[in-house]
Amino acid sequence: MSATPLNAALPASTTRAAGSGRGASALRHLLFLIAFFGLWEWGSRAGWLDRTLFGQPSEIAHYLWRGFFVRGDLWLELGYTLAGTFISFLLGSVAAIVLGLAFTQWPPLERALDPYLTVINAMPRFALAPLFLLWFGLGLSSKVAMGTSLSFFIVLANTVAGIRGVPQDFLTLSRSLGATPLQLFWKVTLPSAVPVIFSGLRLGLIFSMLGVVGAEIIAAEHGLGQTLAYLQSNFNMDGVMALLFLLAALGMVVVKGMARLERWLLRWQ
Amino acid sequence: MAAISIRDLCVDFGGAVLAVDHVSLEIPSGQFVAIVGPSGCGKTTILNHLTGLLPVQQGQIAIGGEAPRAGSPRVTYTMARDCLFPWRTALQNVCFGMELRGVPLPEREALARRELERVGLGRFADAYPKALSHGMRQRCALARGFCLQSEVLLMDEPFGALDAQTKIQLEDLLLQLWGETKRTVVFITHDLAEAVALADRVVVMSARPGRVVADMAIDLPRPRHVRELQRDPAFLQLYSQVWEQLERGIRLSETQDEGAMA
Fold first, then answer.
1. What is the ipTM of this complex?
2. Which CATH number fits domain B2-74+150-261: 1.20.810.10, 3.40.50.300, 3.40.50.150, 3.40.190.10?
3. To which H or E segment does residue A227 belong?
């Protein structure tokens, strides 16, 4: 999960240069994956790998197939996790951007709140899970609370950094041309801060999902995290592996979608 | 009436160090004045006072008879860095000042397109700054400044970051744009050749505290071409005279420092 933001932070030119060899590199990846899963399958069939600990690729695929297309119950769990992720992302990032803007427009507020925010942010957030469960119950609300508490801080930090990072020259020039504070904000400060705010939003989305899935694992009625915990307690390793692949794929889709939106919004970069 | 009048301007930053020491300048309308001096002599400080971004502490400044005020339509400021917004196209950047001043969209786009044509960027109206070279970006910044039609242009080393060849091209462009409209220009530079080639008048300042040590008329005929001027004996003579004055200014403040220490 930590590798994703690093990749995304690569300058655009690097990614574009890599694009020319994309076909060849996709082929290499495909070959590697075939070899990897083939070895795994062969190993578990031959008894080299303990199936109760590692599962077996064909069974994992079978589990996913049944879950989505025979029983269909995974759709519901997926829906819960996605809903939790998006709601907490929305709540966390809107609150963070609003507070971040308030901080930069009115610095005394930041000075007053900063120590408390630092303490809350420093606390291992999952330690709040018991509290959230008591306050919000087993349902979606407690998952949203966890996801929001994680995404909020990362978006806040990036919003403040983005607005602080507006080049002084831009402000001087605009003021000398007679920009009103409102014009300065909408036409200069905000557009200039958007790239940094956006990298915060990208991380915020990942953190939302992390919070939601984590809270589901701890205690829930629905969601992929809950399913994962249930399968693990039943020693259904094929199911556990299937869920892990599913979560990885989900994370990828979410991050790619965000990156695409970002590229479109920031096409001037 | 003088377009710009500065009387006994004194500036200090936090009391201890005097940055600008009793500077007085009368600049008639339509004159191109270059202010030169060693770094830290308060050139940019004076300009910042003219924009109205820094309040006058001591002395008086009047632009067209009024105290300077940030956002006054009389004055346009151009900075050392091109200061184009990366999220706006060349056209949108040129429009920026007019946008702030409430010029309606079709009108400001028409004006901006015309101005981009004049600086030779007509084909690049829809390009983002990342796609433009340094020289093109500074052309764009010139267009932004000139299309505001203000009486006074304040320019703070606008070509300081350019290579020699591009610089000469842009100096010629500036002379051409200025020649068409005859605004009052206050041009800050540390490049003496640039000052002599462009200006009607060169004001030489001493090192900190900034004082006017010389105020020289540059009576070279116009229209001028920067590259040709560089071979002109009259230009070279004026250039060396300005140099002498600048050296005198530096010596002056050095002996003063020694006096203060003794």
1. 0.83
2. 3.40.50.300
3. helix A224-233
